[in-house]
Amino acid sequence: MDFGLKGRHAVVTGGTRGIGRAITRALLEQGASVTVCHRQENAEADALRAEFASREASARLVRADVSREADARLLLERARDAFGAVDVLVNNAGIISHLPLAEMAEDEWARVVDTNLGGTYRMIRASLDGLARPASIVNITSAVAKHGMPNASHYVASKAGIIGLTRALCKELGPEGIRVNAITCGIIDDTGQANPNGEEGKRRYAGMTALGRLGEPAEVADAVLFLASDAARYVTGAVLDVDGGI
Ligand code: NDP
Q1: Cα of 178 from ligand 1 centre, angstroms
Q2: What is residue 195's predicted lDDT score, i.e. its pLDDT?
Q3: Is residue 173 assigned to a domain?
Q4: Which domain holds residue 48?
């Protein structure tokens, strides 16, 4: 399917693994240029760098931690230097930990909220001057923001906060030609956050969906392509469920 993104420039946070990597590949396949960030040097970052080189892709990998303002600014600067104004910003980077509230120290709460919600705020703020007009921002959040989940209240609160941020900024930035939407992912297989409970847990989650299976990273990427494209030109403030009907 051609989403008409050829020649557009996208920035994807957390693109070395899981859903972010699928989004990056999908955007490249559409002919977009992509600037990707990751937090740490690891085998996944090396592999993506090698993949970019072998495809001679219009892509850059930048090490930047979205929980730091200076890194967010540096990432946007590097992106603009490489490929010019940014047409699409995908806020995908996210972390989780599993703890009951009683055992959740304040620094653990802050670490997760400041990466997921804080990182999304920081990236949008840092990008404003460098965004093309029109532009599309896609924030990756989670089905648990709507349904809840025990033992990850920091994560659930941060993901619900992203929905609020999306709705607030769609009103604030719409007049400037910037659309802001969110995707609530269900459990997506082959990712870092797929499921802490192994195969048995996956089977249980699959049974909770209307489609009877977990999602695939590429299925989230397809929804991103739609929201990034002109096919969604009258869509803003939307929260699109990609969760198999959980
Ligand atoms: P993964 O754990 O597989 O990958 C996370 C990516 O984000 C990595 O590239 C990682 O880079 C990067 N990252 C983490 N922290 C930072 C940071 N502070 N700054 C920059 N990059 C960072 O994640 P998933 O693919 O599982 O999840 C992607 C998004 O989708 C997340 O926002 C998650 O909450 C959401 N989601 C996922 C679901 C799932 O089932 N997988 C379900 C619902 C929502 P590095 O390797 O360098 O750490």
Answers
A1: 24
A2: 66
A3: yes
A4: 9-242
What gap in Å lies between CA 8 and CA 27, rounded to an integer? 9
pLDDT score recorded for residue 177: 98
Q: Is 151 domain-assigned?
A: yes
Pocket test for ligand 1, best of 38, 219, 239, 240 (most atoms within 8 A of CB): 38
Domain count, the chain: 1
Identify the pLDDT of residue 157: 98
**Domain assignment of residue 4, yes or no:** no
Among the atoms of ligand 1, which is closest to the Cα of residue 71?
Answer: 19
Q: Supply the CATH number for residue 226's domain.
A: 3.40.50.720
The rounded Cα 145 to chain-centroid distance in angstroms is 15
Structural domain includes residue 1: no
Q: What ligand 1 atom has the least distance to the C-alpha of 215?
A: 40
Cα(18)–Cα(12) distance, integer angstroms: 12
Low-confidence ranges of the chain (pLDDT < 70): 195-196
Question: Which pTM was predicted?
Answer: 0.98
Angle at 51 between CA 45 and CA 52, to 5 degrees: 90
Q: What is the ipTM of this complex?
A: 0.99
